[in-house]
Specification:
By secondary structure, the protein is mainly β. It has three helices and 16 strands. β12 and β13 (127-134) form a beta hairpin.
Length: 163
């Protein structure tokens, strides 16, 4: 049976999963472990790997899934639900730990003073020095361009350390 992706209504994740289960539709909602600070305290949560989306296994009755309470829409292609390859689901399940959570690789940490290279965006290919890590997953780097040193702030995901 094919898997499809369904977009959940806001704040109705648990309701949608329960209604799909009651309707006899197998679901897969991969989750990750996350630690964040909330009102000064560190809290653990398990949000969806793909926020607001769940995979549903269907045979013929995709219309029943579409109109399930808590489902906003289905990911469609040419008027029919887009099929998710079984290998994708199997690969995600292989990455689960014993708690059933997807283990994401740790992003490489860039330290102050590291030589870095911009990998994406209009500055791709330029190298510089990490001078600051700012809020919202951004880093400030010192680039030598236009005959002098220029400080630029770019997303942390678009730089890599040069070893």
């Amino acid at each position: 049976m094919p898997w499809i992706a369904a977009r959940l209504s806001p704040n109705r994740e648990a309701l949608a999963l329960d209604m799909l289960k009651r309707g006899g539709f197998p679901t897969y909602a991969p989750r990750i472990a996350e630690r964040r600070t909330l009102r000064g305290r560190r809290v653990a949560s398990t949000p969806l790997l793909f926020p607001s989306y769940v995979f549903v296994e269907i045979a013929l009755q995709w219309h029943a899934v579409r109109w399930t309470v808590g489902i906003a829409s289905l990911v469609m292609t040419n008027g029919t639900p887009a099929k998710v390859d079984d290998e994708i689901i199997a690969t995600l399940r292989q990455r689960e730990d014993k708690r059933g959570l997807i283990a994401l690789p740790e992003p490489p940490r860039i330290k102050l003073g590291d030589r870095v290279r911009v990998t994406r965006g209009p500055l791709a290919g330029l190298a510089g020095l990490c001078v600051e890590q700012t809020a919202h997953e951004r880093v400030a780097i010192l680039l030598h361009v236009l005959g002098g040193a220029r400080r630029v702030t770019v997303p942390a995901a678009s730089v890599e350390a040069v070893r």
